[in-house]
């Protein structure tokens, strides 16, 4: 059926009393073809409420990018790899490696784990491409997470990719230089700002803690000018130790509503709009331009940002407020480190547990509630029972971690914050099942004590990681068992 006939039929149905020749298709009026403006007219007056609206909206979707930008700023004055209390730091375009599990007093990144040895480095690719070294890890699980300003991954380096030892190059969006001989592969970021976070598996035995030091020494990152085709080695146990910075109970604050209007133009310049974001960017940038000359409008914009912080961003710290809902009140996500324009999930993850791996690298399961939907709390005792062959199906390893109400570790009597593949002394039942006992008090039964995950005081959360998950995990046929309250 021709479009022209449909138009005629519609006019008749509406009683238009006008017949159009069926053989003459109707074209658009010339006025419909006029060039439309590409964005808002910056010459017009805007209201304070509108500035507030734009500030509120922009604060929500740009929150992860400003978070990453401010983490980069912290690295600017760093001149060498150092430890600062429980943290590590490196100059821009370099990284620093830990040599053991992360210290439980760390408060810079929420939801850390004690299954891997971490590395950390911030990228400034506008100044130089960066070489990443991959040593020979043998059969040990490893993955390098490297993300852009949006916290989207742009690198595939790890055991699950069959990555070979060698040299890999990270370049910015506009770099057009010559790739030196000996570089195995080039990865291009969509932004100049980024973060590199290697994760190398370590089990709980003293033997493995010694054995891992050899490959750790070869995990390096440095500007292209320092590349000479030879594998560089660094003994990370000998880097300077500086005093610990002040730390509170919650994650260090990285996004500030009162600074947001000043930082946002810089951030948006580093992260050009994704397809479909052009109008969003134009709207925000037009308002930001007006704010420069109008303190009242700027104050309204900041008020919108503050409102978004309290009403929109802060609630997403709770795992139960977002994600794909699974049986027994667990939740998960499936687009980790590939958020694109999924602003809600990207901001929720950045607020609650920033820097997650890609789904084929790690699958995450979050839990704030017991099986009956009541908030997990140390006043009660719980069990998590995996049936025979029912632990998370992985090619790499799995773990069940526990965090306090602020998503951090709290010191306990046995210095244990997670259980899983790394533990060599877990006790399986006669039927092949594995029960983890989650409670504040040490169990009296030796079998239960071996499987004890100490609960911090007050409300807490549980968190399952499946590293290099098998298809049943990524496709959703495997989900975690209920967290049962022991009455």
How would you characterize the overall build of this protein?
This is DUF1254 domain-containing protein. Residues 362-470 form the DUF1214 domain. Pfam families: DUF1214, DUF1254. The chain has 487 residues and is α+β, with helices and mostly antiparallel strands. It folds into three domains: 3-33, no CATH class; 81-239, Domain of unknown function DUF1254 (Immunoglobulin-like), CATH 2.60.40; 319-486, Domain of unknown function DUF1214, C-terminal domain (Jelly Rolls), CATH 2.60.120.600. Helix content is 24%, strand content 23%. It contains ten helices and 22 strands. The chain has helices at residues 3-13, 48-75, 206-211, 213-216, 257-270, 278-291, 295-313, 343-353, 446-450, 471-474, and strands spanning 82-84, 87-89, 96-97, 116-124, 130-134, 142-148, 157-158, 166-171, 183-188, 193-201, 221-223, 241-242, 324-325, 331-332, 362-367, 381-386, 394-404, 418-420, 434-439, 452-454, 460-469, 483-486. The strands form five sheets. The chain has a six-stranded antiparallel β-sheet. Strand 1 and strand 2 (87-89) form a beta hairpin. Helix 2 crosses helix 7 and helix 5 packs across helix 7 (295-313). It starts with a helix and ends with a strand. Residues 1-30 have low confidence and may be disordered.
